[in-house]
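quick one
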Amino acid sequence: MPTLTWPSKSLPDLQPADLVLEAVTYPQAQGYPPLGGFAEAVPENHLYLGDNLKLMAALLPQYEGRLDLIYADPPFFTNKRYPARIGRGEDSRHPQEWQLAEGYADHWSDIDAYLNFLYPRLALMHRLLAPSGTLYLHLDWHADAYARLLLDEIFGRERLLNQIVWLYHGPSPIRHAFNRKHDTILVYTKSSDYTFNTDAVRQPYNPNTVKTFNSSPKAGFGKMPDLARGKVPEDWWYFPVVARLHNERSGYPTQKPEALLERILLASSNPGDLVADFFCGSGTLPLVAARLARRFLAGDVTWRAVHTTRSRLVALPAPPFAFYRDSTAQIPLSPFGLSLRAKPATLRAKSFDVAQDRPQGETCNPSHPLTYACGTPDCLGQAGAGRASLQPFAFAQGKLANRTISIVNPPALDYWEVDPAWDGITFRSANQAQRPIRSGVIPLKLESPIAPKYICIRAITVKGEQIQITIRSGSS
Ligand SMILES: C[S@@+](CC[C@H](N)C(=O)[O-])C[C@H]1O[C@@H](n2cnc3c(N)ncnc32)[C@H](O)[C@@H]1O
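structure w/ S-adenosylmethionine:
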């Protein structure tokens, strides 16, 4: 059998990521435990921030041979940068006016470097798949031929189930070749005994076909299709690109349409199955998986991707999920803080600390630029002299009334969430607010599902930087 070789081809020694449980999210308070969650098991759905080579290596002890489906949509070897769109309400027809931020890069010194990236990751995906599992590898003309040879080597040539062509329309600058308007999805199964739900993906026949067969039973040369049941789709699929699907757009680059992932998940997994996407980008796979009652593992190396995925899961709302971070992957922190106003009576406390949790250990020094509040309820509640000294760093003020936590005059925020029973270690996100893709106006009030005790608020600015503040009862 022919195999693909290149001078630096090798499978590197595995260096598993050191995974830190960063947060457990209960989208829109769903599933939040009545007592604050401390005794709850970590949810089975996972979101990861980190390089997926280290991540998959870290998952092997628990998940080897256990994943029912993996969808992989890696960089395509385009040698381009893909910015993310973070503005709201701009005219889609004028991209030069869009507000952009860093998305992800698909840059390589040469094809060898790209193959050195892809090969060990595909090998790990093969190890993680269950015996009846399926890999969908999404690429295009830039590298699909190389990937097919790699997959033949890893899975076996006979395990190629389909080479799916996804067709779409869209503008193109190409003038001296045919417009390149399709991607290739290589589908490999781990064994010959694989999941494929034919009936779940059947489609109605074209009305002309139905008319022809109904008028002439000989139309199919004696073969009569089951017109009522519908047909199994061909291996070429037309779905519009996300740029044309206004309701799906997240602003994250190269986002794939939900309908595409829906067909993949329906065909090759069942409700309750464990499915994964380690190049999850905006999170289309985990989103559709949650909607179709599959459990998911999803990860990405860029923080913006993970944040976008989390936002989409929260909006669904998805079942609770755990968010892990490779300890070497950093979430960008905002140099600014939020200031909060807390009513002592509602917290039944004598004094409060309000502090941006950075730098560690310096939470009560108003002269430090990153630390902007400390002291008694008077200082915070009436905000006399205390507030004056906060001005240069404080963007917002907040209030707590019973279970309603509100902030006013915040900086440009994309998202904020609240843990009303902060244990100082794992953030349990009991409720979340986010900037809608159209209006851009983020809600400034959140209801806590329990009476707040020790509150932690995390906010993500439009630039993608995180702010964390805590309000602690000094007497409890
Ligand atoms: C084509 S995009 C995925 C788009 C996604 N399917 C969606 O629907 O939004 C590829 C993604 O792979 C991620 N990526 C690139 N290298 C990675 C790595 N080493 N580990 C994890 N993710 C990586 C990029 O950050 C990017 O989000």
